[in-house]
Design brief:
Helix content is 35%, strand content 25%. The chain is of the alpha/beta class. The strands form 2 sheets. It has a 7-stranded mixed β-sheet, sandwiched between helices. A two-stranded antiparallel ribbon has the order 8-9. The structure holds 5-O-phosphono-beta-D-ribofuranosylamine (GRF).
Length: 204
């Protein structure tokens, strides 16, 4: 079987990165392998996690480049060199340009901590709490260059209790993400994802 190689992009804690790497190591990622961590913050905790798991890292500092296109072009050649099939954004805190979005159209996904199109952008959990919704959730979507606007691949609701604290909601959302994201990546690796415009179907 040809390997299905993924690169995870992350900027922070890396709990989703870890869940994906562990799923891959346990053979629970549809045969996919986590080949690379791409990180724009070399001091982020996710980098230590990658090192502990023996996963290669591609680290860079955006301010050392003239433009986003410039560092993305370097990342694109690294991904091409490694034959990366799917880019998985997991807490990567930067918008992407066409340099990466175009060649990976339909092959780049993100996880967002709300039921999109509600609460796109930064601090979706805080936005949901401030708005007072009773149900929020998580969304896996394709990346299209906009802010959390790509076609939806998978969603899962997360119910809120009265007086829900931010900490408890964050914990529930993270737990849900760590299950749903590996399932979504597996579907891609197994070739089960059918994309027709904004309609994405997962074949069983
Ligand atoms: C997750 O909540 C994800 O939904 C959002 O960023 C967060 C990353 O958390 N895009 P972690 O770095 O995986 O712990």
């Amino acid at each position: 079987m040809t390997p299905f190689r993924i690169a995870v992009f992350a900027s922070g804690q890396g709990s989703n990165f870890q869940a994906l790497a562990e799923a891959a190591a346990a053979g629970r990622l549809g045969g996919a392998t986590v080949d690379l961590l791409v990180c724009d913050k070399p001091e982020a905790p996710v980098v230590k996690r990658a090192q502990a798991l023996g996963i290669d890292t591609y680290l860079f500092r955006p301010k050392e480049y003239d433009s986003r296109e410039a560092y993305e072009a370097e990342i694109a050649s690294e991904l091409a060199r490694r034959g990366i099939d799917l880019i998985v954004l997991a807490g990567y805190m930067r918008l992407l340009t066409a340099v990466l979005v175009k060649p990976y159209e339909g092959r780049m996904i993100n996880i967002h901590p709300s039921l999109l199109p509600a609460f796109p952008g930064k601090d979706a959990i805080g936005q949901a709490l401030d708005y007072g919704v009773k149900v929020t959730g998580i969304t896996v979507h394709l990346v299209d260059g906009g802010m959390d606007t790509g076609a939806i691949v998978a969603q899962q609701p997360v119910e809120m209790v009265q007086g829900e604290s931010r900490e408890s909601l964050e914990a529930k959302i993270h737990a849900a993400e760590m299950k749903l994201y590996p399932q979504a990546v597996s579907a891609f690796a197994e070739g089960k994802v059918v994309i027709e415009g904004r309609k994405v179907t997962i074949r069983h």
